[in-house]
Amino acid sequence: MKENLSNVSGTLFVPMAGRIFASHRFPHIVHDEKALMLEKKISAQIDIFKGQSEYTLVASAVRSMNMDAAVNSFLKENPSGIIVNLGCGLETTFYRNDNGTATWYELDLPEVIELREKYLGKHERDISIPASVFDEEWGGIVKESANRKNVLFLASGLLYYFEKPQVITLLKRIASIPNAILVFDTVNSSGMKRMAGYMRQLGHEDAAMYFYVDDAKELAYEICDTVTVIEERPYYSRVKNRKGMKFITKISMSISDKFNMVKMISLKMN
Q1: CA–CA separation, 255 vs 248, rounded Å?
Q2: What average pLDDT score do residues 20-48 get?
Q3: What per-residue string of b and e applies to 84-110 under the rule 16 or more CB within 10 Å gives b?
Q4: Where are the domains of the chain?
Q5: This prediction's pTM
């Protein structure tokens, strides 16, 4: 029986499927022991691979690869830093990357946090915040916890689903938190059309997508004049080893990177 979730929240099983697939087939992209432990339990609840192709599964796994790289880089410089996972879903970033000293916050809607804790459990340094990313209260929690520490915000597969004014409001709120860095995945206007087709393929037609970024510098300027671009990177550029992938998967990845259709953006927020 499928879990009863809203349309957007229902997509949270998609990245889990990608991490499980990559852990079996392409562990150099991501190897997720936590996801593998949950594979049978989740598969009994929902067909997480329904409608997926090798390319869509790899795309989900590469997002984790990119986020892991950002987290590891941050923790090397800030071993006692704060990491805030916006719209965390069933992400297992904490379990793959925790260094034993950082503080993590997992922020998502109450019904998603309930599901997350059911499958992933709890940890004293991985703190759940059951709230919408657009609620104002969680910002105060993070500010109080940070106390002059650097804060890394992750928005993994999140911002697509919201209108641009909503996203700008959220990013302005993040920019008000001292020493904040934001890392997120996004698409350009051409990539948005491709992403919409991808969601239809997965049976999530009602999870409408709106937000895209053609130019990271323009976005930074819209947020605040103190926001600067650290990096705007083609999404698949870290995947050097593509051995064993289908030809159509490799071609799709190459086309995406050539035209910057999907990308990772890192912003220094203040």
Answers
A1: 10
A2: 88
A3: bbbbbbbbbbbbbbbeeebbbbbbbbe
A4: 7-268
A5: 0.92
From edge to edge, which strands make up the β-sheet containing 262-268?
Answer: 126-130, 103-108, 82-86, 151-155, 180-187, 262-268, 228-234
Smallest CA-to-CA distance from 89 within 158, 180, 177 is with 158
Q: How far is CA 48 from CA 10, 14, 97, 109, 248, in A?
A: 10, 6, 24, 21, 22
pLDDT tens by residue, 124-165: 999 999 999 999 999 999 999 888 899 999 999 999 989 999
- Amino acid identity, position 15: P
Q: How far is CA 40 from the centre of its chain?
A: 23
Give the pLDDT confidence of 227-250 residue by residue, as tens digits: 999 999 999 999 999 999 999 999
CATH of domain 7-268: 3.40.50.150
Q: What is the CA radius of gyration of the chain?
A: 17
In the structure, what pLDDT confidence band is assigned to residue 1 with cuts at 50, 70 and 90? very low
